[in-house]
Description:
Chain A has 87 residues and is an all-alpha fold. Helix content of chain A is 66%, strand content 0%.
Amino acid sequence: MSYAEDHQWSQHHLSHYVEGDLTPRARRRLDRHARDCVDCGRGLRAMRALVRAVHGLDALAGVRAPATIFDRVRSAGAGGSPAPRNA
Amino acid sequence: MPPSRGGRSLGPAAGDAVTETILLARAQAGDVGAFEQLSGAYADRLFMLLLRLLGDPDEAGEVAQEVMLRAWRGITRFQGRSSYFTWLYRIAVNEANRALAKRDRGPANVSIGPQELELPASPADDPARQAENNELRLALTGALAGLAPPLRTAIVLRDVEGFSTQEAAEIAGISQAAFKSRLHQARLQVRAAIGDDALATAGA
């Protein structure tokens, strides 16, 4: 494999690497390339930071469901009760 | 079992699993109060999921009502092959997709902002760091909103909500291989939208 081929392949597999989706052999290929390639080393750090940051979006969500969330269920009333199990 | 990653749990504590089973049985027998108690435990997270997928608080509220109605009407068909929250989330993703299809395009006018997200300030962070983090969070929210709906669903379920690949694929109603493909595409697109410099700062 040429450096350019390794580079292109590595750039497209950074997320697979972070996700643990690469075979040991493929992982070694990316490791080897990233050691020599500033762009891919940086890309790998960026991808890890991205996953961490996106995961962190959840923790800041102090959002509450609107109080109306069961309104349609209540409006359905007895007529809208669940169908019998064998229906 | 509720999913957990990094100590996060979406469902009831283990000790409440029995309560959930009892509530489920009552709800399936037609007890609407039991249904509300059972599903209410997931209401906030479900609404947040819809907000992220749809980008509009009013629409997310409307769709959340429809999700609960569909869950109520279909609860006797729930046979426990997946956990209750997975089943409920699958209905939510289906309804969000239906709403997006009606729109005929993605959420061009995303209105999730700092107020909706109630961005908290960590006491450990200095003001400059807080501002940087908030800027990154808003940029990420915008980048997620700019994704095609199938890609957005994948990254929200896996990376924001923290579901395992298996659970997330089940909720999205696709194979794990297809789900992973969408997830990787989504991450590449978000990375391109945010830029490595901003991410490097976040990772520092």
